[in-house]
Give the backbone structure.
Amino acid sequence: MLTHRVIPCLDVKDGRVVKGIRFQGLTDAGDPTDAAARYEAEGADELVLLDVSATPEGRGHAVDTVRAVRAVLSIPLTVGGGLRTIDHASALLDAGADKVSVNTAAVRDPSFIDRVAGRFGSQCAVVAVDAARRIGGPGWEVVVHSGKERTGIDAIAWARECAARGSGELLLTSWDKDGTKSGYDLELLTAVSEAVNIPVIASGGAAHPDHLVEAIHAGASAVLAASIFHYAEYTVGAVKDVLAARGIEVRRG
């Protein structure tokens, strides 16, 4: 039976964990190294660290933050936010990231995915797909710059292209659901999962373990959450207990 991963996400701004709704209204949620150590102790399978202000502010991810988090972490670490160049990707990997996540730069120049995968391997190349329901029409479109810019690019077609260009995994976030605690966009998740043959990480909207169960049934290989962990509503271990009780295979110990 396929084992599903539970992945806490640390959205970081100015060296602090933050949380908002639809990428806006960010509030402080603690120190990233403290959170990383706690989540590993609770049984997290991996950790995602995203600098949510790097792209809007036109800068790269703070390598020092990555290095500090890696110092307290032994589980796999994916890092993204403001990644624009191969040299920057290399610096993040050297600082302790196991995978790098690309988003806006890949939308601007899709060949960037090929270059990251070609240089570091597909297992290191995660593409973050931020998708919003089209206004006045069916389906979803890709959004960038923390959701401020709608690109008009069909999210399903983009997911297929990312996989074809060598991405080893997709981090799929519903802009409409992010931070709302109303559950993942299951329709979007199923559509993307059925369109690609690589793992899809569900992100955006989880409020309780049942939402994670729904995401896995909708096709997710892994489930990512932030608010429910940051504010100690649930531990990672408690979430895994619920998943296991629902017949979902999770990693233990």
Summary: The longest strand covers residues 5-13.
